[in-house]
Structures are given as C-alpha cells and as structure tokens.
Amino acid sequence: MNRILAFIAAYITAFILPAAAAATTHTPNAPPPEFIDRGACPFECCVYRDWTTTREVTLVDKPRSSHVVIKIPTGRTVTGVTGQVISKPVRWVAVRDLEEGIHKGDVYYLLHYAGEGYWAVWHRGRVVNVSLEAQDGAKDGGAGDQSVWWVQIRTRDGHTGWAVSTDNFANQDSCG
Length: 176
Description:
By secondary structure, the protein is mainly beta.
C-alpha cells in the first residue's frame, strides 16, 4: 500500500504539477490584462505634496470605487499622499531599434507616460522605461495611452480617499 501511495505521489509531482503550472503561465511577452503601477507619479517633476483642488473633487474609498468618502470644494489645500497608474496595455510593434533590448519588429505594450519623453512599456515579461516618439511604434489595436492616474488624498481635517488626478489639482509639478 505504501508503494502505491509513493508511486501516486511521485507521478503527481513529476507529471501533473508541472503540467498544471505550465497551463497557468503566460507567454513571456503576453502582458497582464491591466497593469497597476503603485506609487507612480507619471510625469517629469511630479511630486506628492500639498496640492490645491481646481474643481470640486469627489474622494472614494479606493481606486475605481463609487463609495464616496467626501466631496472637496474648489480651492482647498489637500495633501497628495501617493498614487497609482492603472493601464490597459496597448500592443505596439517597434519600427526601429529602441533601448532596453527592444528591436525593430518586436512587440511591446504601451503602459503609461513616465516623464521627459519616456514611457513605461511591457516587453518580454518586464516593465522598462523607453524614450518614445509618435513614430516609434505601429499600434496594433487600441488607441494610444490607455491609463488613468489615481491619487490618494488626505484633507486638512483627516479624511483620506482616492480621486482621478486629471485636471483636478494644482501644484503637482515641482518644476513650476
């Protein structure tokens, strides 16, 4: 009986587990369905510090939530604590050699702008920053940048929540 159990255990270890693991892995260049860049501040001179609301801002309990924490009126000082950029990867094909080992004809996936002409891209299972111009890749589905920058905000009276950053805050740029 012990030999039968040992044989079954050996068979499972040798054949079943590796096959199951192989079935759940992705090809090296297949991106995740979405990519979350936690802590990202996605442009040159971007800084988390005291910001001013440029319009009424609704804070929610977490990114993409509809559970409202508080509404902040225009012109209020808040603290930008951290952020995350949530991206839907967009497939591109390199039309010339790029840095980080991306060669003409390689498939890579645009994630989000990273600042000073650099973009975060997914290439062969890793995220790299490369300098891109509009003509550096041929889109193969989707339209350009498919990302949203969510920021965690703390109000002066201690409320904390998340909001989309786009055009909602001033003083995010330490360069002016």
